[in-house]
Amino acid sequence: MTKAKEIRAYKEANPTHKAKDIAKACGVTTTYVYQVLHSAKKKAVKKPVVTEGQDTLRKEIKRLHEDLDGWKELYLSANEALTQLEQDVVGYRAVISYLQGQLDGATV
After folding, report:
1. For 12, 27, 37, 39, which has the most beta carbons within 10 A of its beta carbon?
2. Exposed, middle or buried, 18 (CB in 10 Å: 0-12/13-18/19+)?
C-alpha cells in the first residue's frame, strides 16, 4: 500500500484526527498529509444536489419538448395536406382551362 493510500485509509477510519496525528501514525510529514488529503478532496466526485425547483424545471422542459414534437407532427401533417390542396388546385385549373378551351371552340 502506498503512503497516500495509507493516509486516506487512516483518515477514513479516524475522521476526527488532525493532520499531525495522521502524519505521526503513517510516518510522513504533516505537509505531505495535507497534500494527499487536498488532492483526494479535489478528486472526490461530488454528486450535485437536485432541488425541487430544478426537478420541476426539468419536468417542464421535458413537457415542452414533447409539446414541440406534437406541434411539429401537426405542422408536417398540415403541410402535407396543404401540398395536396395546392396540387388539387393546379389540377382543377387545368380542367377549367381545358373546359374553357372546349367552350371557346364550340359554336352556338
Report:
1. 37
2. exposed
